[in-house]
Amino acid sequence: xxxxxxxxxxxxDQVDLNVxxxxxxxxxxxNSISKTNPLSRFKSVKNFKAEYNQQIxxxxxxxxxxxxxxxxxxxxxxxxxxxxxxxxxxxxxxxxNYSVVAIDADSFFFNNNSKHQYSILIEAILLADYxxxxxxxxxxxxxxxxxxxxxxxxxIKEANxxxxxxxxxTESINFxxxxxxxxxxxxxxxxxxxIIEQDVKENLKNVxxxxxxxxxIKKEQMNLLLSVNAGSAHEPRVVHLTYQPxxxxxxxxxxxxxxxxxxxxxxxxxxxxxxxxxxMKFDMGGSATVYAAFRAxxxxxxxxxxxxxxxxxxxxxxSNATFPDSVITxxxxxxxxILNTDAEGRLILADALDYACDQKPDAIIDAATLTGxxxxxxGKEVCAMLGNDEKLIKSMKASAEEVDExxxxxxIIQEYRDDIKSKVAEIKNIGSPRxxxxxxxxxxxxxxxxxxxxxxxxxxxxxxxxxSHLPYCPPHGASGVMVRTxxxxxxxx
Length: 493
Ligand code: BES
Ligand code: ZN
Ligand code: ZN
Fold this sequence. Notes:
By secondary structure, this protein is of the alpha/beta class. 33% of the residues lie in helices and 20% in strands. The longest helix has 26 residues, at 156-181. The site of one zinc ion has 5 residues, from loops.
């Protein structure tokens, strides 16, 4: 599908379908139609009230087909409602048989912020267009060849600028979705690291790449990561990317992004039951999420320095695998009693966070599919956030709200900290059974943050996949949710 920006339709465009929106109003339900439009002879249409998401097809003459998209009450429309409407609209058009589609962008604008709304149209279309069909023998080819976004209010130059900005993010989200959806027999640690290295080389500027292999990880004393990797057929990897912006201002910050990259989570010796194990290819979602946010910020030319650290291994079982009851000393010297090898995400993140602290960032954001408990607390819709710095937490919450992603804080209290004190070591990797599981994960991670660096932990276990309520996400598989929030934070901090 080719996305084209225009200020008007030319006769040579041979449009198969004209799409325009209409708001609910007392006078007419086709209120956005200009006098020059062939549709203008329809004052109103029976049974079409321009309710939100209501659609009607009209054929004003034999050469013209129009789809009118209801946006409901103009005063009640929001950015997110627009984003969702455009995404479902795009998917419904894609399912039909039109090759050239023209969308009247101006008819979607609900207030003066038309540039932002124009960017939402593009964002919704590019996110909704994503599918993962690599392993389908028969692909669902889109019939849409050309999608013309027509606007009199936005100049072609402005349209291209808006597209460039949006595309940095949507392309990175779709890249992350591909990684998360990729199957574990293809995307194992060494392969994953290679894909990232290659993507950086091909697409990003001012980024240095360091990939730690097993020897180097041993030298770094990342024993917790090594303990998770012990049962694996593949070497672990730590991908360490540094973006140094060309121009840094006095207010430029250094942000470190850290992600859990478990390419498959069997649970290790604390083996997951079959039902709970299927789907665990997405356990590297945190690392793909932070990489996508990093990638988007680099493409968009962030003025902040950004470090991205991905801790990568699978969590498998063989005769070398770590036994529950083992005690391992982490990179920061703390001894950890591993009582459950399925609580592995916090172990690999522990060493990665300690390593991240050594880069001396102003703030650290980590993302991980860390706990099943997060789904119990928040369902699939809300991302959990915990951290040690109220200012950073507030700022992340605001970043999420601005891009309409659901992010909610959970508390860290002393009692939770006490719950992971170990009888034989400094700490243990689980707390009391079924109690505050998501927060327990966070208090464990907190042990590996040093020098009072501001830190937030995002538990994306719920939001990482299957966001069937979000039309701009595929109903199954990776969502890419939280990339926009982290990107927004990194760009504007
Ligand atoms: N990767 C899982 C978390 C998870 C579970 C994400 C289900 C999404 C859906 C993680 O490694 C894990 O297994 N956590 C355990 C921790 C427990 C042993 C303390 C869990 O949540 O059961
Ligand atoms: Zn696990
Ligand atoms: Zn896991």
